[in-house]
Amino acid sequence: MSQIVTTEYGRLRRVRGAEHEWLLEIPNCGKWEPLSEEQMDGSLSVNHGAICSCGYHETHPYGAALVAAMQANILTRKPATEEDED
To answer: What are the boundaries of each domain within the chain?
Structure first.
């Protein structure tokens, strides 16, 4: 099972035991792209369009959005994550 958190930039999925701990669901095509530390902090873009015709190539502070979404869910007492079967 993995955890999915919805942020303002899309859904992030936590995968335990993987080289990249968080995956981004690409909004344009629905595929999951691993995020590096630099992509998580917004210093490097996610260029999924280079390997897919969807054209997704954006830079956002995914990590900050993840923390904000999880904190907002705690404050509003909503479940912080969705469960997803692997």
So the answer is: 2-78
